[in-house]
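Appendix C reproduces, verbatim, an entry submitted by the partner laboratory led by Prof. M.T., so that reviewers can inspect both the input and the predicted structure.
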Amino acid sequence: MLTVLLNPASASANNPDLKPRIIELFRASGVDVRLVVLPRDAVDATIAEALRAKPHTVAAAGGDGTVSSVAAAVAGSATPFGILPLGTLNHFAKDLHIPLDLAQAVHTIASRHIVVVDAAQVNGRVFVNNSSIGLYPSVVERREALRKQGHRKWPAFAMAATQVLSRSEDVSVRLNVDGRQIVTRTPFVFVGNNEYHVSGIHVGARARLDSGRLFACLAPRVKTRELPKLVMRALAGRISRGDGFATFAAAEIWIESLENRQISVSTDGEVKLMATPLHYQALARALNVFAPAPG
């Protein structure tokens, strides 16, 4: 029995025929399926309840946030984990070469080829893509406030980014990476689950997800008027030591805020207030994920 955990708020899930379509595709592939809809205000609780039934296999149907939540619940276990990418960006699925087409994604799960990959965590919060402090959590918090006022997700994001970038959002931090201490003020610190490409045509993607290492990027401090340009360069992957960026790879990273006991932290697009120091750890080989076989 396969338990599919569906987030109906995902970008591609606003289709009344989606639920019966998912069930139909799996049954046509010889897979018996139970579909559980995740309510917006109780995602983690619903996932935990579904997993208490000890399903043999689970699948996340949604975007990166949904995938991350389900991955957090199965990380470190032997439970095979499938992905039906229904979000806008689908970073984790793309890096695993999982098809974005629903029928092909179902076929990938039904084929039962498993790859063992890493996850990561910060203060016990598991993520599969990346985490950050500084600018991005501020943008997400402002975006959510605008969405509560009735704005749609992407226009709200654009307005939030404009508002946050118009003022200085530096954070004062002390990093400990493999025994090396760095004290600085920075617009943002980015920590990825495995190394991200920062240049070339594959910018923003990862070549592998099984190195057992975190990838950290520390942005240089700049004047407020230069902040939009810096962020655009980072988003475009055009960063280098010559621009003042510093990058590190490590299995464990500590980040201490020198100003606040608690700090806003994003993990795969979700923002939570966490106590510092932040303890980042790579979770090597924590996930058994259905993915296409090589070739």
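Residues 127-283 form a domain with the Tumour Suppressor Smad4 fold (CATH 2.60.200.40). Additional entries are available on request from the coordinating office.
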